[in-house]
Amino acid sequence: MLSANRQALADGFRDGIPIGLGYFVVSFTLGITAKHAGLNPFQGFLASLLNNASAGEYAGFTVIAADAPYIEIAIITLVANARYLLMSTVMSQKFSPETPFYHRIFVGFDVTDEIFGISIARKGWLNPFYNYGAMLTALPGWSIGTALGIIAGNVLPLSAVSALSVALYGMFLAIIIPPARKDKIIGAAVAISFAMSFLAETFFSEISAGTRTIFLTILIAGAAAVLHPVTEKK
User: Fold this and answer.
1) pTM for this prediction
2) Phi, psi angle pair for 73, to nearest 5°
3) Which site in 14, 108, 110, 113 is 20 to 30 Å from 85, CA atoms measured?
4) What SS3 state is found at 52?
5) Please, what sign has the CA dihedral across residues 94, 100, 105, 110?
6) Which is higher by pLDDT, 44 or 226?
């Protein structure tokens, strides 16, 4: 059993290397956003270490920059990261029934899109040490990249910082464009989200950005789920 755990750990570490490198690049630009929110490198490192989620952290940093109350920060982070609840539920079915509960908790701590993908692709029962190996590269890459992004934001000229901050939007475009091209419903939901976000900011500017984001996310996602539910066959 010990040798099987070691092999699973090594496999996860190997498969997690490209994920960690990708996280480092993306989180570097996220650090620029954290810098605008007033976080120092240690705070940014800790935030990324405990919340390894690009959209959730970006939303959190945005409302922090807007001096939002704690409850609003908590709600928007929960909404932005809600998909991980579903991923964790699916991944739990990959574990053997004999897998201890504490392993499920530790694995659930770092369920990201990429780690979820490589974990689900594994054949047979999932050994939790495989996830631990992937986490050994993913978590440092994400948290160190955020801290270095904040440091760069403190030393680079304003024009360079402004240019780097735009890179994060490129990441979000890379996330939404491929599925939007494949599915017209997703594409329509994305377009509606852009339009309603613009209208909300124009006509309801007195409402904080965090509250607007929470409301629109629940409204648009809920409407799409009711009007165009994903069938079991899909």
Assistant:
1) 0.69
2) -65, -45
3) 14
4) coil
5) negative
6) 44
